[in-house]
Specification:
By secondary structure, the protein is an all-beta fold. It has no helices and 25 strands. The radius of gyration is 14 Å and the shape is globular. The mean pLDDT is 87.
């Protein structure tokens, strides 16, 4: 599903066994919308050749709530650029993100953020508040940093509250969480 500019609500859905040659194996959401939400949804076995195995979220505020992310992959193999392979389940760029009551298991990123990669994309799009609350991260893997989560340069505040991290792996730094440039 591709969106470029309208508010989106996904509720009580299953997004399973999808792939994208670029970003967002399940959903590719771009700037122009002001808000988006995903609730009570299953994302399983989705693959992006670049980033965001399940969701590529870019440039607007959003909430992901009471959803399951299982066995999604960001491969970083599109060969078009030197970027990609971030956010095995979700890459969230240039927007405020809230992740509440979710379950992440067996997601893989070739580079950063086995489950989630929060970052800014360009100077004017700071991810000001990135909040993880009451979520579970099990057996997620990143080839570089942040086995479960990677909070990357340019964002203002990162919050993790009442969440569980178990058996996540990063081949370089931050087996569970990697913080770079956040408060």
């Amino acid at each position: 599903m591709f969106n470029d500019g309208v508010d989106i609500i996904v509720n009580s859905s299953k997004i399973i066994n999808n792939s994208a040659g670029n970003n967002g194996g399940g959903l590719d959401w771009r700037e122009g919308a002001s808000n988006g939400s995903v609730t009570n949804t299953v994302f399983e076995n989705n693959t992006a050749n670049r980033s965001g195995g399940a969701i590529y979220w870019n440039g607007f505020n959003g909430t992901v709530q009471s959803s399951n992310f299982i066995n999604n992959r960001a491969l970083g193999t599109d060969n078009a650029t030197t970027t990609g392979g971030d956010g095995g389940a979700i890459i969230w760029t240039g927007s405020n993100g809230t992740v509440l009551n979710n379950y992440f298991r067996n997601n893989t990123a070739a580079y950063r953020g086995g489950a989630i990669f929060f970052t800014k994309q360009v100077a004017e799009l700071d991810a000001e508040n990135c909040t993880i609350n009451n979520s579970v991260f099990i057996n997620n893997t990143a080839g570089l940093n942040g086995g479960a989560l990677d909070f990357f340069t340019g964002s203002t505040n990162g919050y993790i509250v009442n969440s569980t991290f178990d058996n996540n792996v990063a081949n370089r730094s931050g087996g569970a969480v990697y913080w770079n440039g956040f408060n």
